[in-house]
Design a protein that fits this description.
Blueprint: H1 2-5, E1 10-15, H2 21-35, E2 41-44, H3 53-65, E3 70-75, H4 81-93, E4 98-102, H5 119-130, E5 135-140, H6 151-163, E6 168-173, H7 177-189, E7 196-200, H8 206-216, H9 222-230, H10 235-255, E8 260-264, H11 270-279
Parallel strand pairs: 1-2, 1-8, 2-3, 3-4, 4-5, 5-6, 6-7, 7-8
The structure holds flavin-adenine dinucleotide.
Length: 281
């Protein structure tokens, strides 16, 4: 963890673009509440295949117009180089300076994987087309990406994104701090020297979390799963226990040198705000 300690800490929050006008109205209230925490930036997710292209951009531009830093996510799966180039031009022309660059997952029913097959190719493409205009964040997987051939292969693929010009990374969420510390040690051994910010998923609802975690390969440790299951439908107890667990996780990560935290807010300000305040950020 030696290299991580020298990076300026970054505390940020993630939102997704809602589908309806009502959802957007709620999201405005959410980001205004989160803005009081003074996050370094808001990031806004992007539906693979471009399904949220306009809503992602619209949300980012509104947040920026409201006086905050914001970064759109951009995924390359299912898109042509020409399509990605047009989005990059639009991002640049509207004054955006920061992108979270991802491969994405091909939506079921979409036949073509597109022209850029992996996130390292997207990072390369962004750099070749727009030079140093954008700060580029990429994804990292301390518990290994579910499609990776092996942990080593996944790590080398992560390095490809770094070598292609990424400035920093945000991890998939995890509940096992040791997986993160080990990942950072492995990165250091390969000379990877960029901030790797832990992604934090607050716990508000067990069944939703279990579904997500299965899909993205994040492990819910047995003790945590059993304890959460034991609360059944008692949401206040799940939230209260979840707040304790996640605050402890964040505290441990920061004490041992993590260069910040990135909160997956699920468009809810409450849990993230409480953890943030408990940590005294
Ligand atoms: P990659 O880095 O391309 O890796 C994907 C897999 O391919 C890995 O198994 C890797 O080992 C392997 N691989 C990588 N490069 C190569 C190569 N050159 N040759 C062979 N194999 C390779 N998804 C969305 O749709 N929209 C979002 O907004 C979004 N935001 C996210 C934000 C964060 C912080 C994270 C962690 C994930 C996000 N995701 C999002 C999910 C992400 O798109 C998926 O996890 C996806 O499966 C992988 O994306 P990636 O950018 O990590 O892909």
């Amino acid at each position: 963890m030696q290299t991580q300690k020298k990076h300026t800490p970054s505390f940020s929050v993630e939102l997704f673009p809602p589908k309806t006008a009502e959802g957007m109205e709620k999201l405005r209230a959410t980001w205004k509440e989160l803005a009081l925490l003074k996050p370094r930036f808001f990031s806004v997710t992007y539906g693979a295949g471009g399904s949220t292209q306009d809503r992602t951009l619209g949300t980012v531009l509104e947040i920026i117009a409201d006086g905050h830093q914001a970064a759109p996510h951009l995924s390359c799966v299912g898109s042509s180089r020409e399509e990605i180039a047009a989005i990059l031009d639009q991002y640049r022309d509207t004054g955006i300076r920061h992108i979270v660059a991802l491969r994405g997952d091909l939506p079921s029913g979409m036949a073509s994987a597109g022209e850029l097959r992996h996130a390292n190719e997207l990072v390369e493409f962004i750099r070749s087309r727009t030079g140093d205009h954008f700060q580029i964040d990429v994804a990292a997987y301390p518990e290994v990406h579910p499609q990776a051939k092996s942990p080593r292969d996944d790590l080398l693929n992560f390095k490809r994104k770094v070598d292609a010009g990424a400035n920093s990374a945000i991890t998939q969420y995890f509940y096992n701090a040791d997986a993160y510390f080990r990942f950072i040690d492995d990165c250091e051994a390969l000379g990877i020297d960029l901030p790797v910010v832990p992604g934090i998923m607050p716990i508000g609802n067990f069944s939703q979390l279990a579904r997500f975690s299965d899909a993205c390969g994040a492990e819910i440790p047995r003790w945590l799963r059993l304890k959460l299951q034991s609360y059944g439908d008692d949401l206040p107890s799940i939230r209260s226990f979840g707040l304790d667990v996640i605050t402890d996780l964040c505290r441990r990560l920061l004490e041992q040198g993590a260069p910040g935290l990135h909160f997956y807010t699920m468009n809810q300000a409450g849990l993230t705000g409480t953890i943030w305040k408990r940590l005294g950020l």
